[in-house]
Amino acid sequence: MSKPKVYILDTHTLSPLGLGTKELLASLQNQHKAMAPISQFDAAGLSQTHACEVSQAHLAQLQELSEAWQVVAANDRKFALWASVLESKRTALQALFGKTSKARTALFLGLGANAFPVQRIAMSVADYSAFGLNEAIAQLNFYNGKKANSIFNHADLYGAYFAQEIAPFGFCRNLMTACSSSTQAIAFGAAHVMAGQADLVLAGGTDSIINQFAYISFGKLGVLSPDQCKPFDTGRNGTIAGECAGYTLLASEKFVRENGLQPRAALIGFGNSMDAYKITAPDPSGEGVERALRIALEMAQLPLDALDYINAHGTGTRSNDEAELRAIERIVGAAAPNIAVSSTKDRHGHAIAAAGIQEFHVLTTCMANDLIPANLSCNQPIQSSLVLPFASNQTKQMRYALTNNFAFGGVNCSLALENLAL
Amino acid sequence: MLASITAIGFWESTQFSVDGSIGSRAELLPNLAKIQRQLPNLDAAFRQLVLDPTHPNYPKPSDLKILRNDTIAALILSQQMQAFHQWDAAFLERGALLVANSNFIDDDVLDFEAIASAVSQLQNAQDSATENKLFGSTISPLLPLRTLTNGAQSFIAQYLGFHGTATTYGSTGIASVQALRDACNLLQIGASPAVLVGGCHYANLFSFLNNCLLLSDTKGYAEASAASFFMLTPFDDSTNSAARLHIVAYYPALSALEGEQVDWLFYGGAFTPQQDAELQARCKNLRYREAFSWFAHTGNIGAAELGMLLAAAANWLQTGQTAVLVLQDAYGVIELFKVQKA
């Protein structure tokens, strides 16, 4: 296999750490943690009443949308985030998508499961039960059956918004693998460019679990920390919920050359694997994680000692962090003392299906600014031969780095990036 | 040539095949959907597969509490295909499993009546803390797992001992074509030696009504349940598997094929007889000898449709003959590609 290289033109997110690269960088440099009391619903009485939320000020552009889209946004937080992040870059996106034919472009989106607007369903059932259940459900969809279904939006809706409001594209893929969704969207989007099927791919996704139903049901899985998310700390006790929408723009060499662009980073490898262990828990041996990382490094044709930094999945849960560290140690062996590993989930929260694009943006921003983000909430790090920076960020040039995400069901995905500015 | 299909299997209520064989067109049964469930006030119907708990490949009892019906159907079919085709370690370790899903919920997960009753209790709560507590007590911790979007992918990997690349596509009927195109990418760049592409759709009251709401006219709407899988390998003309088809090329639009002569048109994605006729009419500028859609025999089968159309192509094309496959999603977006019988 020849050495693949997919150019990263730009990455843009709307997250609890701000809108766009500039705000994200400032937040990372200031070591800001976005965890705050939940504003989207009253979480009184729950074991965790905090989450990392996108600031309301960043959603102001929703008021400019047509009424039909506003209704969708009001009922579907991940759509509200998606529309907002796209609108904030509308002109740039339109200009870029105008540089090649529609057939040579594609969207690869990682999407979360649908939120259940339970109260609305229940009220509708109560109001219309005299007419039968089918009538009750029909009444829930009184706004615009074609564009959006207020119980369940078809996954195609998010691409449809892009096609109708931003720019036409060749086609859209919707990848739905829980916490690895948008990481895989980037990997499969890169494969599409590598296979010569497109010159420009927008890959990313959107998700939020900060609503009463999802938050309570997610909490029941026992993965939310009752206090703080502390990745790689021996006393870690769970993750913290976040939300994010965003994308990265992947381009072929031809597109870069023809448009005289000078990208600062490239995606040079990806690795996917399945634990095939248990649907409810990751393989404690970390074998699946190890496999995904090895495949990514193989594709990138990277010697192990070339790796500078790994942005870990690092959820802060008992089951993830140690298995992930041990898997990395087995792969890099003697190179471990030169490789920094950190998780930024304690700063922005776990954005579930959008965790991949959230952390991809953290990584590209850090690489471009020689910034190794510290494990801020880690006070007593797990013993490891790897470098686990804590307390404060470090400065280091990074030529090669990985970002990892793993999901329920035992799905693992790792992406390898190269800093082209060095 | 982009790739070759070396195995096809499918399960629809009247047909089960691990080797892709479906017999002749004359043997196909007409749509029996109305027999299974007819809703009042709608000229529309759906039917479900009969999932037999005594089947030797039925999932383990400990897994059943987090398994949806679509996943059970996909699990039974994929295990049967594995037993028949004996896919090797190269596939299980480094291959890919790309699963298309067009519904993520079971009727009993979204129990409207139970929710209504729980919410009426919630409305009596004095404060948010009590409400949240009551809410929590009505939600099973297993619910997030039963609605897990990648459930089928993950269970299949577990039951088959599959450790390679896997993902799930969520969309309407064309999700499986999205999976097929990504499968070709993975083969082309050498990331996987073989790719199992599958789709499952399990009609239930919720998906049925949800889809009805997308239609301006539901007359004759029929939805069925099915699962299908096919194995894709790099292009290879050397073996003589009965299911062997080659993926010739994709096309960005129907107009790209105008004037080209093919032997068959296989199309799908329609929800109603009217949509079925309209979709065939959209292909009027293609030159073909025969056209076929599963609609009249099964109703809409969502993400499982592509595998069954490929089975029809593998069975009815003569060596060297070509066909165009056209699939449409709920919003009228189409995907199309050409196949050739080996």
Count of helical segments of chain A? 14
- Please count the helical segments of chain B: 13
Largest interface: A-B, 83 and 82 residues
Helix content of chain B: 25-40%
Low-confidence stretches of chain A: 142-147
Q: In percent, how much strand structure appears in the residues of chain A? A: 15-25%
Q: What is the global morphology of chain A?
A: globular
What does this structure look like?
The complex is a heterodimer of chains A (422) and B (342). Chain A contains 14 helices and 15 strands. Chain A has helices at residues 20-29, 67-75, 77-87, 90-97, 118-128, 133-140, 156-166, 181-194, 212-220, 253-258, 287-300, 318-332, 345-348, 355-368, and strands at 6-15, 18-19, 35-37, 50-52, 105-111, 171-175, 200-208, 243-251, 265-274, 307-311, 340-342, 371-372, 394-395, 400-407, 411-419. In chain A, the strands form 3 sheets. In chain A, strands 1, 2, 5, 6, 7, 8, 9, 10, 11, 14 and 15 form an 11-stranded mixed beta sheet that branches. Chain A has a two-stranded antiparallel ribbon with strand order 3-4. In chain A, 61% of the residues are buried. By secondary structure, chain B is an alpha/beta fold. Chain B contains 13 helices and 13 strands. In chain B, helix 3 (69-85) runs parallel beside helix 8 (151-160) and helix 5 runs antiparallel to helix 6. Chain B is globular and about 70 Å long. At the A-B interface, helix 5, helix 6, strand 6, helix 8 and helix 9 of A face strand 4, helix 5, helix 6, helix 7 and helix 8 of B.
Question: Could you write a compact summary of the structure shown?
Answer:
The complex is a heterodimer of chains A (422) and B (342). Chain A has helices at 20-29, 67-75, 77-87, 90-97, 118-128, 133-140, 156-166, 181-194, 212-220, 253-258, 287-300, 318-332, 345-348, 355-368, and strands spanning 6-15, 18-19, 35-37, 50-52, 105-111, 171-175, 200-208, 243-251, 265-274, 307-311, 340-342, 371-372, 394-395, 400-407, 411-419. Chain A is of the alpha/beta class and 422 residues long.
